[in-house]
Amino acid sequence: MENFRQFEAGPDPFGRTWKVEFKWLQTAISLRHSDTVDVKFVLRADGERSEKAIAMPHADLLQLSQKTGHPLTDPWCSRLAALHLKHIIESGEDMEKDLVTMSPADLAICAAALPRAA
């Protein structure tokens, strides 16, 4: 996941490949009174447009950062969210949701899939 700003994901369970574009990363304290880092993406496929926000609990990110030794940075968070979104698209899991909160296990799986240099 070198380019989290623009990538393709799929096929989804219906055979579509989605073009995904990074929209923003924000702490959700001000948005939803939630201690999460939210990453929003715009998805397009076959004339459809959708938006997905991937929420990552801040406490879980801190734990993961300490465990992996990877600094907690915006690009790292964006890549974790992009990998999880790719999983959502390809599995169809949670595809109906506009806001998906990653579990500690989801975070660990995505972190393990990233090269250390990312």
Task: Produce the secondary structure layout.
Blueprint: E1 6-9, E2 18-27, H1 29-32, E3 36-45, E4 48-57, H2 58-68, H3 74-91, E5 99-101, H4 104-113
Helix pairs in contact: 2-4, 3-4
Radius of gyration, taken over Cα atoms and rounded to an integer in Å: 14 Å
How much of the sequence is in beta strands? 25-35%
The arrangement of helices and strands along the chain is EEHEEHHEH
- Total beta strands: 5
- How many domain units? 1
Shape, principal axes of CA atoms:
globular
Average of pLDDT:
92
**Which bin fits the share of residues in helices?**
25-40%
How far is the N terminus from the C terminus? 8 Å
Give a quick account of the main beta sheet: strands, pairing sense, barrel closure: 5 strands, mixed
* SS content category: alpha+beta
Number of helices: 4
* Poorly predicted regions: none
Strand order of the largest sheet: 1-2-3-4-5
